[in-house]
Design a protein that fits this description.
The structure is a single chain. The protein is an alpha/beta fold and about 120 residues long. It has helices spanning about 5-10, 20-25, 35-40, 70-75, 100-110, and strands at about 20, 45-50, 85. Helix 4 links the parallel strand 2 and strand 3. Helix 3 runs parallel beside helix 4. It is globular.
Length: about 120
């Protein structure tokens, strides 16, 4: 596997900060996302957190219900720099009638897991 675009961006713009979509960065389980987060921890103010089966064209799940190690991803970030965990769902969410149910389940899982504080 060649160099991923995120690494190229971060190398060519060393003063830039950039968010990271952890699900897409995983290349469907081929990349160690916590290592990517750790490498650029001081430059990542937000993570797009999403979960799923890590199978191309399969729908996302609510956070905590798929195969992503979201805890390791968040814990690899710099707690002083990381300000936001953004729940993002690309497709229909398996196991939920409406996408907003999956967003609520993700929020609950992230806050109960101690990964985020929430803003309710």
């Amino acid at each position: 596997m060649g160099k991923i675009a995120y690494h190229t961006l971060m190398e060519l713009a060393p003063a830039a900060s950039a968010e990271l979509d952890v699900y897409w960065a995983s290349a469907f389980g081929k990349m160690n996302v916590p290592l990517v987060v750790k490498k650029y921890a001081g430059r990542i103010p937000q993570l797009h957190v999403k979960d799923g089966p890590l199978i191309k064209n399969e729908p996302n799940t609510a956070c905590g219900h798929g195969k992503m190690d979201l805890k390791a991803c968040v814990h690899s970030a710099d707690p002083e720099k990381l300000k936001w965990l953004v729940v993002e769902l690309d497709q229909y969410v398996r196991g939920h009638e409406h996408v907003m149910e999956a967003v609520q389940d993700s929020y609950t899982w992230l806050t109960e897991s101690g990964l985020g504080t929430g803003t309710k």
